[in-house]
Amino acid sequence: MIVLGVILLILGFVFGISILWTIGLILVLVGLVLWVLGAVGHAVGGRRHYW
């Protein structure tokens, strides 16, 4: 999710499409939150680890 978000951020910046920039930023933030929750041991969506 983080990688897809970064790709969308780059594409949105290069092509000047603001919706791609916004979606990419949201995906990166959600991916980071899920990664942190999984890293500290909280179950995310019924799973012990998120990847």
Features:
51 residues
Report on this structure.
By secondary structure, this protein is mainly α. Helices cover 71% and strands 0% of the residues. The protein is built from two helices and no strands. Helix 1 packs antiparallel against helix 2 (18-39). The chain starts with a helix and ends in a 12-residue tail after the last helix. The model has no long low-confidence stretch (mean pLDDT 85).
Task: Please summarize what this structure is.
The protein is an all-alpha fold.
Gross morphology is: rod-shaped
Helix content: over 70%
- Please give the largest β-sheet: none
Q: Report the count of strand segments.
A: 0
| Oligomeric organization of the protein chains | single chain
Mind sketching the topology for me?
Blueprint: H1 2-15, H2 18-39
